[in-house]
Every structure is written in structure tokens, then in C-alpha cells.
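The authors assume throughout that readers already know how a fold can be written as C-alpha cells. For illustration, here is how one protein appears when written out as sequence plus C-alpha cells:
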Amino acid sequence: MILPVLLQALLLGYLLGTIPFGLFFAHLSGAGDIRKVGSGNIGATNVLRTGKKWAAAGTLLCDGLKGAVAVLVARAVLPPGAEIIAALGAVLGHLFPVWLKFKGGKGVATYLGVCFALTWPVGVLVAGTWLGAAFIWRISSLSALIAIALSPAFFLLLHHDAYAALALILSALIYYMHRENIRRLIRGAEPRIGSKTGGEAGAAQR
């Protein structure tokens, strides 16, 4: 793939990834600036802390869709392999959006959308792993980290080596963005799904 094609794919993915759906849905729901709520993150988990469940669901869906759209458009209009670069760009755009001074979300929903678009069975496996882990431990971040850590193996099992390499890179990025969550998990201070943010976890998230 020549450099201009790589740049086109990266730019396509990045621009789609920078769309701050969490910010939009939070404002639309009347919750105000999501960057001033909870962790200050623009992702669905933080939108849920406003109590606006429909806004959180909309954020989750749209953050996933922008990752999927980046892959599908690149696959349709650019040479084979460009979808990998577009996928990378989409997650980078969500994590580091230029419009928000490079302070974005943590990338889980966008990455899930990427997985579905690259190879839908892997998307199903990642989503299923998250749901299973959430049912057992009821900790959103832990469930996401388990599912994402397994995603490169899922791609390898289905013989998509290039996608597995991409998954390894994106998994490392997402783990870095979850470094505070990981510290709280080690301390046993990470809040469970449905619990109110408070105490040590609340202080850490703010």
C-alpha cells in the first residue's frame, strides 16, 4: 500500500473517531458537559453516571458505529488492507480527538465496533466475553479488559493474522487508557456495575 492510501485511511478513521457522541448525548439529555461529570471521560460509562440511561446507550451505540463505519468505508473505497489503518485511526481519534484537546474516551466501544466490522464473529466473541465477565464480576472495566485482552487470540483462531497484530496494538493502547482503572482493580476499589460512585473510587475518578 502506498503512502497516500495509508494517510487517507488513517485520516478517514481518525476524523470519524473524533466525533464526541458522549458530549453530544449528554448535552441533549440535559446533563450538561460530560467532561465535568465523574471521571470527565466522554465514553458511555461516564455518561451513565449522569443517570441518563438512554444517553449512555446512544453513546455506546454511536461510538461503536463510528469504528465500524471507518472500517467498512475504507474496505469499500480503498485498496485491501486499508481497513486496518482506518481501524487504527478510528480508535486513535476516539482516544485523542483534536477537537477536545486530545482528551477523549477509553476506546472500548469504538474498538468493539472495529472488531465487528473487521470480522463479525470476533465482534460476537468479544461482546460475549464482556457480557460473561460482567455477569460474573459485575465490574465494567474488568469485563472490558478481559474481552480486549482475548481479542488478538480470537482473530488468530479465525486465521486473521494481520487483524490480530492490529488488535494487539489497540489492546495495548486501551490498557494504557485504563491504567487508573487497573490500579483501582488491584486495590479492590473499582465500583461495580449499578453501584453509586463514591469513596475512594469516586475520588479517583474525579
